[in-house]
């Protein structure tokens, strides 16, 4: 087909402008990293996706314009200024485990600030605070803190998760009922803003920015450094697992879940106890950690409360070594069924308050649904994770993270061999529908770390009543939405 000459000229002009913009970005970013070619990669480079991009969820392919690997806040500042001046969006990447690849921008054409080289660590024994580079992984942080004086902070069970995302979204984990989430440990942050300025955010300096960073950090800047309060690492803990190979009626599994739900909603439940119930095809697993002695754990009577576990598939292991316990968490994590290998997957989330447990009919219907629904998945599981405790001691208006009334979270998760199909979407949607239909008053809270690109109103689901304040702060520090992803906070 022949194109009119004026149209061909326009197309050639556009191609020329695109090439010029790409060339300008390359030269600017290389200058920003002191012309070290190992610290920047660009679309079109050999093995770009494999070596530089490294998408986590293959269901959401994305190609950034460039991926940078700065070694200092000064370089981050120059990178951000390059991108904003040339009209590119920016997102920071720490561990790189966003469920929709938002650390890569979430859509094509972003400039990525990969913080993998920013892993410095210092510890002040007087304040018992640690200063940590935002590229550090939680497993690395554990090692540094123990070496510094047997200290610890809350975080999830995977050692490969980066603090840069975890501590700016939430940071749920086994100790959160005692100490709060990882973001609750943050007392100060160094942040590169959209105009390239490098600022400190504390309770008394840029306090609004600190509020925003602690729950919605990706929308407000690139955090390059955290100052964290630390806790004494527990001297003793019991890791327990009760596996029930319940291949019989849905009623049996429903009864077990109802017992667990009744247990975790008891008013006097110890904050030393972390508990998860995991529903898989053919089995149910109740697991968690008790931070105390074996005698204290046995006094809880969990084995008696949940009888009928499969012989040989239950355990209560005592740990007196924090790093050993953390390593065991990593080995036992249900999410590690997929490993750290990129995969096609989709996940959904619901948050339950103390006054919104699933009704008895709802529990029964859930297990009947799981028995009969077509999944279209290679692997699926549903996790209910007890939280509350110290997390809910913090007022909602103190941090950008808003869901301080959630007692337990549900995450349903499916892995497929290729692109997630409609059958799998329908399967996970059906889980939510069954629960919603049988849980009066259930809200739309979604944990911000369980990104769901199909949410109808994602910003309200992630940030609830804090959204309006976050939008005002966004307008003040990033009015042009330089730090953008498809579900991020927008200027008011």
UniProtKB/TrEMBL annotation:
Leader peptide range in chain numbering: 1-20
A Pfam family per the record: FAD_binding_4
Example of a GO MF term: FAD binding
FAD-binding PCMH-type domain sequence ranges: 60-233
Keywords linked to the UniProt accession: FAD, Flavoprotein, Oxidoreductase, Signal
Protein family membership: Belongs to the oxygen-dependent FAD-linked oxidoreductase family.
Name of protein: FAD-binding domain-containing protein
Source organism of this protein record: Aspergillus homomorphus (strain CBS 101889)
């Amino acid at each position: 087909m022949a194109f009119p000459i004026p149209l061909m000229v326009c197309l050639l002009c556009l191609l020329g402008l695109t090439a010029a913009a790409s060339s300008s970005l390359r030269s600017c970013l290389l200058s920003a990293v002191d012309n070290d070619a190992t610290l920047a990669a660009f679309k079109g480079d050999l093995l770009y996706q494999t070596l530089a991009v490294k998408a986590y969820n293959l269901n959401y392919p994305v190609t950034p314009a460039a991926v940078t690997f700065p070694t200092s806040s000064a370089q981050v500042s120059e990178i951000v200024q390059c991108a904003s001046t040339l009209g590119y969006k920016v997102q920071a990447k720490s561990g790189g485990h966003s469920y929709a690849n938002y650390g890569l921008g979430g859509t094509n054409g972003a400039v990525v600030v990969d913080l993998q080289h920013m892993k410095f660590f210092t510890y002040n024994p007087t304040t018992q605070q640690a200063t940590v580079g935002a590229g550090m992984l939680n497993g690395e942080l554990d090692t540094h803190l123990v070496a510094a004086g047997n200290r610890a902070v809350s975080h999830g069970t995977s050692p490969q998760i980066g603090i840069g995302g975890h501590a700016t979204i939430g940071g749920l984990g086994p100790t959160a009922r005692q100490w709060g989430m990882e973001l609750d440990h943050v007392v100060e942050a160094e942040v590169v803003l959209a105009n390239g300025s490098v600022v400190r955010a504390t309770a008394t300096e840029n306090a609004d920015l600190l509020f925003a960073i602690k729950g919605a950090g990706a929308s407000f800047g690139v955090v390059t450094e955290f100052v964290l309060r630390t806790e004494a690492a527990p001297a003793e803990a019991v890791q327990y697992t009760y596996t029930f190979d319940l291949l019989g009626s849905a009623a049996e599994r429903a009864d077990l879940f109802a017992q667990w739900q009744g247990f975790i909603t008891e008013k006097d439940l110890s904050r030393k106890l972390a508990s998860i119930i995991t529903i898989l095809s053919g089995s149910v697993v109740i697991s968690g950690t008790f931070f105390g002695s074996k005698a204290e754990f046995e006094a809880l009577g969990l084995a008696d409360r949940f009888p009928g576990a499969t012989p040989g598939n239950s355990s209560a292991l005592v740990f007196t070594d924090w790093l050993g316990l953390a390593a065991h968490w990593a080995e036992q994590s249900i999410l590690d069924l997929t490993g750290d290998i990129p995969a096609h997957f989709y996940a959904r989330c619901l948050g339950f308050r103390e006054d919104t447990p699933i009704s008895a009919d709802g529990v029964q219907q859930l297990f009947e649904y799981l028995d009969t629904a077509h999944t279209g998945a290679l692997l699926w599981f549903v996790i209910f994770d007890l939280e509350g405790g110290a997390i809910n001691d913090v007022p909602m208006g103190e941090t950008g993270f808003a869901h301080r009334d959630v007692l337990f979270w549900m995450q349903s998760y499916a892995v497929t061999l290729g692109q997630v199909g409609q059958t799998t979407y329908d399967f996970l949607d059906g889980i939510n529908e069954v629960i919603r239909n049988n849980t009066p008053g259930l809200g739309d809270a979604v944990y911000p770390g369980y990104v769901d690109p199909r949410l109808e109103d994602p910003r309200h689901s992630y940030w609830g009543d804090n959204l309006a304040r976050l939008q005002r702060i966004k307008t003040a520090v990033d009015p042009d939405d330089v730090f953008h992803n498809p579900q991020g906070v927008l200027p008011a």
